[in-house]
Amino acid sequence: MQIALTGGIACGKSAAMSEFSRLSWGTISADALAHEVLGTPETIALVRDAFGEKILTPANTINRRALGRIVFEDATARKTLESITHPRINTLWRAQIAAGPERRWMVEIPLLFETGLETEFATVLCVHCTAGTQLARLAARGFSEAECRARLTAQLPLEEKVRHATHAIFNEGSLEFLAAQVRALSESMR
Q1: For the segment 113-129, what is each residue's pLDDT rounded down to a tens digit?
Q2: Does residue 154 surpass a pLDDT of 90?
Q3: Would 137 disulfide with which of 10, 28, 79, 187, CB 3.0-4.6 Å?
Q4: How many domains are contained in the chain?
Q5: How far apart are CA 40 and CA 89, in angstroms?
Q6: 158: Cβ–Cβ under 8 A, 6 or more apart, which residues?
Q7: Helices (H), the chain
Q8: How many Cα atoms occupy the beta-carbon half-sphere of 147 within 13 Å?
């Protein structure tokens, strides 16, 4: 069984994934795979060629914050980065599933609907919260208001993600409330 987990930035996708992991689901995070992919020499070279030396740290790794400022302000730049990273990320999560086909898999893909990957899953779970909560959580991570808004507008509106999902978790309350919703969904998906 393969289920996609999506939602907006700062909605609690990682917290939900942790809960699924505690319930013995195999969990795969596209964000974690993106970090892995962006650390490979091949990807670093491609991203440097596309965006210039300004996105590199003194150690010749990718400065994710600098790259983020570029791609969240320019849709064309974002598409360029996605064309470099998404195929590599998708290959990695598909290989993990292929290596354990008997497991129940929860695959967290923030841009699931934006990339058309929802067709690969029979079930889609969306974690969502209010826009005010998203902004507060992003601000707590050190993003300016402009950076927060740029990241929010780069994704499909949450209402649409919820509408297209098979199930939704509203993550506006406590971690215990989130965990209870995850447990109920996990039980229903046996």
Answers
A1: 999 999 999 899 999 99
A2: no
A3: 10
A4: 1
A5: 12
A6: 7, 8, 11, 126, 128, 131
A7: 13-22, 30-38, 41-51, 64-71, 75-99, 112-115, 131-140, 145-153, 158-164, 175-188
A8: 16
Task: Tell me the pairing of strands 123-128 and 167-170.
Answer: parallel
Q: What is the CATH number of the domain that holds 96?
A: 3.40.50.300
What is the extent of the structural domain holding 29?
Answer: 2-188
CA distances from 30 to 56, 59, 175, 180, 184 (A): 22, 25, 22, 24, 24
- 101-112, pLDDT tens digit by residue? 999 999 999 999
pLDDT in tens, 86-102: 999 999 999 999 999 99
